[in-house]
Write a structure and sequence with these properties.
Layout (H helix, E strand, L loop, with lengths): L3 H24 L1 E6 L4 E6 L4 E6 L7 H30 L9 E4 L4 E4 L26
Antiparallel strand pairs: 1-2, 2-3, 4-5
Length: 138
Amino acid sequence: MKDPLKMMRQVQQMQEKMNKVQVELETDTVEGTAGGGAVSVIATGTQKVVSVTIDPAAASDTEMLQDLVVAAVNEAMEKSKQLALVIEATQLGERDVPDYLEVDHSKMTAKFARIPHLNEVPYPVQMEPHLIVEYYSR
């Protein structure tokens, strides 16, 4: 039987991590733009719109302005969802970022710092790494 106190500590640690993620989501922001920057929307990682900036030149055509605002809000919301995934993936213990990846939260990108060794890949490999299959066509 598992130790109940150990399980309680693990639950508390997970709650602390989730609280940290929530705080980060509430403070980190993303920007959605439309019309070449004529409309800019800033939103938090919790998908709350913080500000909307409209270029006065875009305000002359109401229909176009409405479309631009919708497009900028949609882009900001999509980036906000992606930000939430990135932050959760990098903050939670069961999803540690391997040292061969460099994650940039602000740009929502990750890149290889180095090529990982096969034993470092956390997923089952469904192939023989030394096997090369060549296909020839006529």
